[in-house]
Design goal:
The chain is an alpha+beta fold and 229 residues long. Helix content is 43%, strand content 11%. The relative contact order is 0.15. The structure holds protoporphyrin IX containing FE.
Amino acid sequence: MEIINERKASDKTYNDLLDMLLKSTYEDNGEAMTNEQIADEVLILLFAGHETTANTLSWLFYLLSSHKDVLQKLTKSFGDSTVYDCINNEYLKATISETMRLYPAAWMTERVAMADDEFEQFSFPEKTIIIPFFYGLHRDKTFWNNGQDFEPERFILNPKVEKSKYYFPFGAGPRMCIGKNFAMAEMSFFIFLFLKKFQIKPVGQTPNMNPLITLRPDKVILNIQSINV
Ligand code: HEM
């Protein structure tokens, strides 16, 4: 609140997210947000944007360290490319997608029926709470061959999987993640730059799942060595 109040009182332009939130107005009535609403938006962006990518990267490095073949293929795919090219690296994208299939940071979500509703053989009286269980769907034998295995190739062999009805790492519909592209870019940059500098080796530790609001590993222990030493 202090920062919001200071910003409001100052003439300086910072050209950052807080400036954008302070300047934005509602489409319907043209009014600005209250300080409480702005603070809520900042918190949402921090948690939705930080926890999710941090957890996904933790799972990804654990999976890479325990799947030498994937790690080798990934580092080889970087070739001479620069960090700017890595967003278009098909194998890197598939590796991130496959990590989010096995360990979706948003492992479930919930919705409340605003009115009586029905879908196929199911009926939902008003106020029913519905919990889509993404973790379960992402490993369901009906949709996935070797669903428990880490196989990034599946996203390359069948690109339709990304947009299928059984893969929702970023949710779906009007409340889908607004940070999807940012998250994919941010994670790609990090993985690329990290693997250019460091070698990772497993230490035989398997993380336990800690399903809170996001799906965290309890800890990921890796052996990391600088490549230039
Ligand atoms: C690996 C990274 C990420 C994952 C797996 C992820 C996942 C999700 C999912 C599944 C939802 C929908 C929740 C629901 O329908 O109940 C969501 C919503 C949201 N995400 Fe992300 N997210 C990620 C990164 C980010 C980033 C980087 C940002 C912002 C910079 C962000 C901002 C948001 C916001 C603001 C919403 C709420 C949208 C709304 O309710 O209209 N997310 N995210």
